[in-house]
Design goal:
Oligomer: heterodimer
CATH architecture of the largest domain in chain A: Sandwich
Structural class of chain B: mainly alpha
CATH topology of the largest domain in chain B: Rna Polymerase Sigma Factor, Chain: A
CATH class of the largest domain in chain A: Mainly Beta
Largest sheet of chain A: 5 strands, antiparallel
Helix content of chain B: over 70%
Largest interface: A-B, 63 and 77 residues
Radius of gyration of chain A: 22 Å
Number of strands of chain A: 10
Strand content of chain A: 15-25%
Order of helices and strands of chain A: HHHHHEEEEEEEEEE
Strand content of chain B: under 5%
CATH class of the largest domain in chain B: Mainly Alpha
CATH architecture of the largest domain in chain B: Orthogonal Bundle
Number of domains of chain A: 2
Shape of chain B: globular
Distance between the termini of chain B: 11 Å
């Protein structure tokens, strides 16, 4: 018989358990959806209480330390992704069904993002747009639609190639924002980022192929 | 209008959660931009020291980001997940400091005084304050010691001179009631 964690869920989230009890909860929650859901609800309640307390601003140093600590991990993650992609490529020959299912999942996620972007665009009385200009003097059909307050961005690339990425260019530095999801003739990336960005770059194989200047 | 804004906010949180789970860089930056102050405040409210609070937030965010299994989309919002991670890490740090202080005193060395947490209701937002006030006294008392005092259920049982099982039930019920009330208000 499964022994559910019951009220230990709330005590776990509050950090009120000792190490042994905490480990027991973690083991159980990893394989029991009802108890995991109870833990997540308790987390939500704790976050609500926390949000009712006075807010203090951390120093700017913390943001810088975090960026420095996380960027190498991101680069490393790209290698991991590349490894996974390579393994997936090998698997294509052997597991076509699995690939079809995975592709469906990726496309579904991209469609969901697009749906959110379109809902956002539809809810705005107006929005801005900027074209990406190729750095190689070739015709480029890519645009970014963005909120006048700089609180969302929707990058659309026609005839995209696999692995295209979008980066924020600021003070001579580039921060990767995410990958363009391909579906059919177009590729998109929705970014609900509430931060005014003046320049975006489109990258292919880690090389900038186009830039877009955003005016507010 | 409020419903449309809430629904949009929910959709944005879902987008952020998906991107955070996929470990897209923008999601990390956006999560810190949105919740950085909240996370720092959560740590500061436990540790009462800005430098330690920043260290706590830094270590937790980096640890979470470097562990691909740490956050999954189906586990709720990024905000709630990070708040609990930071708070629990801050409590662990606070308990370690208290343990070190007790050990130092026991072996006769001079130790840094460890500030005892004051258990007081310093909730600013009326809706959270009201939700706490509506709890029966015994549940509010146990939950206050657990949340604001960062105490274990064993310590709370000792402090209140109540059986352990009773204290567990009071904390659990109190938190679930608060969660249900605030969730119902949020969806209105």
């Amino acid at each position: 018989m499964i022994e559910h964690i019951e009220e230990l869920a709330e005590l776990y989230v509050l950090g009120s358990l000792d190490d042994l009890e905490r480990q027991r909860v973690e083991r159980h929650v990893s394989s029991c959806l009802p108890c995991a859901t109870r833990v997540y609800k308790a987390e939500q309640a704790v976050a609500e209480i926390a949000s009712g307390q006075p807010l203090y601003e951390p120093s700017h140093v913390l943001g810088r330390r975090l960026r420095e600590a996380v960027r190498p991990a991101v680069r490393q993650h790209h290698w991991v992704t590349a490894g996974i992609a390579f393994a997936a490529a090998l698997a294509i020959a052997f597991i076509p069904t699995w690939l079809a299912v995975d592709r469906t999942r990726v496309v579904t996620q991209a469609m969901l993002q697009d749906e959110r972007a379109l809902a956002r665009i539809a809810s705005e009385p107006s929005f801005n747009r900027a074209a990406f200009v190729s750095t190689r003097n070739i015709r480029m059909d890519a645009k970014v639609l963005y909120g006048p307050r700089g609180d969302w961005y929707y990058v659309v690339v026609m005839h995209p190639r696999p692995g295209m990425q979008v980066a924020y260019v600021h003070n001579g530095r580039m921060e990767m924002l995410g990958s363009v999801a391909m579906h059919g003739e177009s590729g998109t990336l929705y970014l609900p980022v509430n931060h005014k960005m003046e320049q975006l770059a489109l990258l292919e194989d880690n090389t900038v192929i186009a830039n877009a200047r955003l005016i507010y | 209008m409020a419903t449309a804004a809430t629904s949009r906010q929910g959709a944005e949180e879902a987008t952020l959660a998906q991107a955070f789970a996929r470990r897209e860089t923008w999601a990390f930056d956006e999560a810190y931009r949105r919740y950085g102050s909240l996370l720092f405040s959560v740590a500061l409210n436990v540790l009462h020291n800005a430098e330690e609070a920043e260290d706590c937030v830094h270590d937790v965010l980096v640890r979470v980001w470097k562990n691909p299994q740490a956050f999954a989309v189906n586990r709720g919002t990024v905000r709630a997940f990070l708040v609990v991670c930071v708070r629990n890490d801050a409590i662990s740090r606070q308990r370690s400091a208290a343990r070190r202080a007790r050990l130092s005193q026991r072996i006769g060395q001079e130790s840094e005084p460890v500030e005892e947490l004051e258990i007081e209701d310093y909730i600013e937002h009326a809706r959270v304050r009201e939700a706490l006030a509506e709890l029966p006294d015994e549940q509010r008392q146990a939950l206050t010691l657990a949340y604001f005092g960062g105490k274990t259920h064993v310590e709370i049982a000792q402090a209140l001179d109540q059986p352990l099982g009773t204290v567990k039930s009071r904390i659990s019920l109190g938190l679930r009631k608060i969660g249900a009330k605030l969730a119902a208000e949020g969806s209105r």
